[in-house]
Amino acid sequence: MREQNPKERIKNFNEVPYGYNKEEAIAEASRCLQCKKPPCVKGCPVEVNIPAFILAIKEDRFLDAIKIIKETNNLPAVCGRVCPQEDQCEKLCVLQKKGNPIDIGSLERFAADWSRENKQVPINHKKSKKIDGEMIAVIGAGPSGLTCASDLALLGYKVTIFEALHKPGGVLTYGIPEFRLPKNIVMDEVAAIEYLGVNVKYNFVIGKIKSIDELRQEGYKAFYIASGAGLPYFMNIPGENLNGVYSANEFLTRINLMKAYKFPEYDTPIKVGKKVAVIGAGNVAIDSARSALRLGAEKVYIVYRRTEQEMPARLDEIHHAEEEGIIFHLLTSPIKILGDESKEVKKILCIKNKLGDPDDSGRRRPLPIAKSEFEMTTDTVVVAIGNGPNPILQDTIKGLQLNRWGNIEADKNTCITNIKDIFAGGDIVTGAATVIAAMGAGKRAARAINEHIQS
Amino acid sequence: MYAITKKEKIASEIYLVEFEFMDLAKAASPGQFVILRIDEKGERFPLTLFDWNTEKGTIQVVCQAIGVSTRKLCALNEGDSILDIVGPLGRATDTKNIGKVICIGGGVGTAEAYPIAKKMKENGNDVTVIIGARNKDFVICEEKMRAVCHTVHVATDDGTQGKKGFVTDVLRDLLEKDTPDLVFAIGPAVMMKKVAEMTKEKNIKTLVSLNSIMIDGTGMCGGCRVLVGEKVKFACVDGPEFDGHQVDFEDMMSRGKRYHDKEEIALQQHGGVCRRGRAH
Known about the structure:
The complex is a heterodimer of chains A (455) and B (280). Chain A is of the alpha/beta class. Chain A is built from 18 helices and 16 strands. In chain A, helix 9 links the parallel strand 1 (135-139) and strand 2 (158-162). Chain B has helices at residues 22-27, 68-74, 109-122, 142-148, 167-177, 189-201, 249-256, 260-269, and strands at residues 2-11, 14-20, 33-37, 45-53, 58-64, 81-82, 84-89, 100-106, 126-133, 151-156, 163-164, 182-186, 206-209, 225-228, 231-234, 241-243. The A-B interface holds A 164-166, 174, 202-205, 208-210, 230-232, 234, 236, 240-241, 243-244, 246-247, 249-250, 253-254, 257-259, 263-269, 271, 342-343, 390-392 and B 23-24, 27, 37, 41-44, 68-69, 83-89, 215-216, 218-223, 225-227, 232, 237, 251, 254-255, 257-259, 262-263, 265-266, 269.
């Protein structure tokens, strides 16, 4: 895949990979073996008919390709860019054994981009003329909510999505930076979902402005809670409240949702120092680090307590970060953040780790090495160690069963909670996971909600 | 889009702005706030709810023109619209009958104390209000307060109205005569700090309402975090009210200033000069 040169791209927020052109897409599609029992499909949480759409690309039938994808996936331009294909479809590709699987993600992206650029709407996605089904409420316009809503709309339900922010997309909009997922693409995919008849109500925090009970009284017959994992975790170490310490959520929301990278043209400011330390090594951490670089930081460090092998971020993005000059401090844990008299961050006190036995996550546990403390000079710290469930909604639903971390208890296959008309899925159930896993839950929930209404 | 149905200048650079938003009016409670965004390039900024009317479906906020966003809002007129309002956010004030209550409002914080004082009185409390302002041109809501509480005291820094001095000077006098069951303070951080110090000596329960910098207002960004009893709390979802004796005001004040230099740049961009620091 052709990409923007690292030296150039660290100065802008434009997308890094250029995407296939027609000829490249056809050439890549032609490598597909068209397996009779395609293993790749089993790796896709939303069951895209991968060989069929690849065949369509190979045969220059691009409209057919997007039609096939959209039968099961309403966010293909998003998924083609941010899915961890290397752990899903591409991992199971027969050609993987030879080390060079089909680039399924990029082909999906190609089909979606072609459709958008050529304004070609697949026939099965034309607006349903007859929407007379029951009213369903979806809470959260992130990937899970959008998927559930579009599947239900296609089944003929009257779906309203209630979104707390002023823009749709959830983490796609506030979390993932422009250089990895351009926002106009997210907005276009959401517009396509609205075109199906889905109504999105923005600035609507369910649990604050209205309760589930009130929505029930208004006639909503089922609820899908897809409110995400929005509560940032901190390390609970001294100095975390100093100026210059951000949660990754705040850092990325300022940049992505509020366009702080265009300050002062846009009113929302952000402060990025010369030396930025990002704590954590998931996709959110890598996104924060690469954003900091683009905002003018001279040195950006990833501080991670384990080794490269355990990093949760996508390999592609770790490579992109390395190419861009991000410095990785591995086997390192912050123990204290130090500031000056005006409470600005100056240093982080860290300790080196070695790896011990595997913990609950199956990864080897980091163990601090005695007397290995050292100081790192920095003026901005971004804490990207994960998110917990946002409590606003759960707090207002009487009797809803939660687990010990505060996530909603819901059935894996049907997303049903202990309350018969309430379904839940995505990060609010699983804890922070991937876009595609959240979408898979949205699909299963739509199916189960349909059965619930029909029964 | 949310239409402005009324705009009124209530003091120097302080305006009452009313919007149409029925669902919000029905859900609002004293102590809660909204987050607004004026236009596509605007930031999200919080303002406390001042009043609401469930029949007309309107909500009111009181806004002092200080930074870019508040100036943008104050420059709009009836019939204009803003892009976004989300709310009601934050926990509602507990206004149950506790007995004698002193509500203190400093500057534009007086508007924020108003719905609380009103509800406290409705619930049978004996409510005394202290309004503090720089000078008589900045005293707001006095008449409205008189209508909803038992006694109103005014203090101005220069003595142009009411007692010359700070709200704490009035409070000291009141505490010499009587001990309230609750003191509620809302206004500049330094005022709330002074109030809390005074009541702590006498062990009087004191609540303060913290106006931290925030973005989403639903607990997602963590930008509004404050130290309360040495624990990190999010003002938007855990607050905005906290035990005044537990709040680390120094921490709060320094975090509140973290974008002052950027605000200066933003204001220059919009052809203004930053007045922050003088406003409260």
